[in-house]
Amino acid sequence: MERVDLRSDTVTLPSQGMRQFMAAAPVGDDQYGEDPSVNLLQDKVAELLGKEAALFVPSGTMANQIALKVLASPGDEVVVGDEAHIVWHESGASAANSGVRSILRTSRQAPDRNLGR
After folding, report:
1. Mean of pLDDT values over 34-55
2. Using CA of residue 81, residue 113, residue 117, residue 66, what is the dihedral sign?
3. pLDDT value, residue 110
4. Fewest CB within 10 A of the end CB: N or C in the chain?
5. Residues near 77 by Cβ (< 8 Å), separated by ≥ 6?
6. Could you say which DSSP state residue 106 is in?
């Protein structure tokens, strides 16, 4: 089986089988809750995690920014690893979208990757 690399939205390219499945999938307007594929995915994930509902977002960046908006308040400081996607690939989005400031912890400061210390 071929390995799927989920580091980023763009690292792994879809196989021919994936492309065929996407082309044949039923579609609808997700904003109106009319996309059966998205609805099925959200329902399955909510059930899997024992939650009332789930929300599909198309990128890790979007998920990170939603999480910050929901969990932080303007003026908060967010501790992040110096190699984190949110630092290198999302630039000032955290400040612009949520009014938070990133505090970097280096791998040297937390060699076991436990940033809570």
Report:
1. 96
2. positive
3. 57
4. N
5. 100, 101, 102, 103
6. -
- Quote the CA–CA distance of 36 and 24 in Å, as a whole number: 12
- What is d(CA 113, CA 105) in angstroms, rounded to the nearest whole number? 9
Contact 80, 115 (CB under 8 A): yes
CA atoms within 13 A on the CB side of 45: 11
CA distance 71 to 44: 24
The helix (run of H) or strand (run of E) holding residue 65 is: helix 60-71
* C-alpha of 20 from chain center: 25
Q: Which of 52, 56, 63, 109 is nearest to 86 (CA)?
A: 63
Give the mean pLDDT of 12-27.
90
Largest distance between two CA atoms of the chain: 49
